[in-house]
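New here. Invent one.

***
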Amino acid sequence: MLANLINEHALADAQAGNWNAVAATINALRSEVVDQTHWSFGLMMSQGQLPQELVVGIAAAVKTAASVNPLMESAFIAFSTTGLQLHTNDRQAMIETIGADLPSEAVAAVKSLGVRSVPVITTTAEACESAWEYDQVNRAFTTALNDGGINVALAAGDRDGLKSALTTLLESL
């Protein structure tokens, strides 16, 4: 997997042997995780997902919004009992609306319960170099087997052809 990510996202740096840049590029790759959990105020705190003060602030904001909007009243009831899924676009927008008077970090924390970005992989320069080298050897060997005559020489019992094909393989490494 790592070699494939290098080939796809950091080929030039890998070919130049700039393994720190390769690792930085690979570590910057992110993937979106959708969490379909039904989040209640209690679950947010008990799972340690959000600090109690933040959950209390969100609860107060939802309760305030509920006083003027019947849909928010339903959201407050759901957050207080069975929970709400927070991954849909509508729910993400609802969090923005409810959190208009809250710090942006608080809104982002609540939104991340439904949708968050996580690293695809965490790696080091050394791991990238090792994966790249292994992949290059594997590619050279596969090419030599299939296109370089090793399989043909083996099948024909051609010792000289096999020696030549193996020599070519070793020189390519």
